[in-house]
UniProtKB/TrEMBL annotation:
PANTHER family membership: PROTEIN WHAT'S THIS FACTOR 1 HOMOLOG, CHLOROPLASTIC (PTHR31476), UBIQUITIN CARBOXYL-TERMINAL HYDROLASE FAMILY PROTEIN (PTHR31476:SF3)
Originating organism: Flemingia macrophylla
All residue ranges annotated as the PORR domain in the record: 27-356
Domain of life: Eukaryota
Pfam family of the protein (one): PORR
Protein name (record): PORR domain-containing protein
Amino acid sequence: MLWKRKMESVLKSRSRSISSLKVVWRKDQALDRAIEHDKRYKQCARVVKEVLNEPGQAIPLRYLEKRRQRMRLNHKAETFLNQNPGLFDLYYDRIKPKTEPVRFIRPTDRLRRFLEEERQIFLDNEPFIVSKLCKLLMMSKNKVVSADKLLHVKREFGFPNDFLVDLVPRYPQYFRLTGFPQEGKSFLELVNWNPEFAKSVIERRAEVESEILGIRVRPSFTVELPRGFVLKKEMREWVRDWMEVDYVSPYEDVSHLDQASREMEKRSVGVFHELLSLSLHKRIPVPILGKFCDEYRFSNAFSSTFTRHSGIFYLSLKGGIETAVLREAYKGDQLIGRDPLLRIKDKFVELLEEGWQQRAEQLRLKQEKVKEDMMLMAAKVAEYKSEAGA
């Protein structure tokens, strides 16, 4: 009878619909801090992008001020410039020939040197970028993805600004671009399937472990629940059984699978894992992932996958935006699996820190001057009182 009750419990767990499984969300302060670390860097990057997209890469300061909301700038544009010296030069010019000169900003020589370094890093990593782009197409339903959507996520995956018009045409053996980018009706198609690209991070890891151990290691997810996190019994049983289901590669054709099956859930988790692994920071805002529901066969309630599999992912609510984070890529709040293209961010942060140190030194000298002036004034007052008393 005991054996029979156990079997009934197992069968009940296996037949339970995915949508009925609920997991309580739990805050992970370390992973939230990881997102917070990049807040100032991203804000600076948005402003730089805004200026570089202007004709002549220059813009009147008052025009930039009007775009504060779009750039999510919480203070005045002039305050931003003062807080981040080294990014832009301030100068006077006319908007129209007969108008009065107004303040303009343009990239500093220091920022232009960074842009040259950025171009070189892109060139050095071009094969890696091509493989990423191929992988995104190979995981898609028809090996075709909207080019305009790819433009929208270029920062998430580290693609160059002009990758559709510069990089893609140089690799006709892999890509075909149809339509016109930025008009909403353009698509990037995969021309040839490269088997070397059709291996996920999970599969490559299993291959390495197999070589080290000398035995075949089955591809599987790394699951590590946050400290103090406890799953309810029914959820533990479901996860245990789900983990026993064979790994489904995100590069496999799954058109024959039932959308509500455990195998399809396995495949969806595999796709999310691979997408996050391909991203620069091993995390992607959920609204951005949502743009690709059709291409990657995500269900409308796909975001619940991140809480249902809390040992693989973390769903951060930092900044009022849901962000899916790959747990295994972080140790505490530090990213451990660094993408080669993060060298660009490192160079940009160096540029920012030079400016911040410059500003801190200027403030220190200014404070010392104020202190000296106050001491000098106090000495003169004391001298005046002494003379008056005499």
